[in-house]
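User: Sequence in, structure out. Go.
Assistant: Echoing your sequence, followed by the structure tokens.
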Amino acid sequence: MSLIEVRAPGLLTTVQDLGREGFGPMGVSPSGAADAVALRVGNRLAGNAEGAAGLEMTLLGGSFFFREAAVVALTGSDFAPTLDDRRVETWSSVEIRAGQTLQLGPTRAGARCYLSVRGGIDVKSFLGSASTHLLSGLGGFEGRALRKGDVLKLGRAIEGFRTFRKRDLARRALEKLAPRKVLRVTAGPQSDWFSKEARKMFYAGTYRVTEESNRMGLRLEGAAIAPAPDAEMISEGVSLGALQITASGLPIILFVEQQTTGGYPKIANVISADMSSLGQLRPRDEIRFELVEMETARALLVEQEELLASKELILG
């Protein structure tokens, strides 16, 4: 059995896969990788199925001792990874020998880095997913972020990936999949509750991600947006990426561990193709919003999925 020992956990490192869909009516948000595109690509580079469980590191990476040989890939933000003090590439497969230590530092850009290991991280599934749901303390490794001394088990490698072969992400794909700071959105279900002037201010303004942001939601600061003075609503189901305008007039973007219902009006919703960009936003990052039609949102998602499924995505 292949094992990885956590020598240092980093700031917030959790086991994540692509999440658990379909349990919103039970009050369980999907969780999963904050940057699902980075995890999917990392798994392909490592020789896994796209949905295999990996490690998500936030702002500061950890240190991992490999008791046996392994093949890994590091994707997402650059955390300056080294293998026994030798710099290793990101967005590429890396061969690790037994007894080596993979060390990651603070982020150089973006918020999250993903460590995919051939065979995937082997943890008990909860509601069909290995993802850690921090708010409820369920899933992942004991339902929590990793700690020093934790030992992680690896699953079995897919047949045909028993030996190492260097694999890289195509440069064209890396450029196309780069995180965005101008997030494309569709109109929210209560967008008409806001005056034309308020909507214009929202789309013309720049917002800054606050320190209070986390996997539940990204709190923003900037120009306050007021809904119609007589607008009242009861709580209703909310979607991933919904932009709620709170009583203060400031937006919150609901994220992967969101509450599944909410009582604030929603002016917009981040499109699926830009959801991974949310996962790479750091406190104090500045963002803007661009309104697109639903047909454009669908076309952008189809374009992204075609790129991720392309045979030219992975070189080697």
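User: And one key feature?
Assistant: The mean pLDDT is 94.
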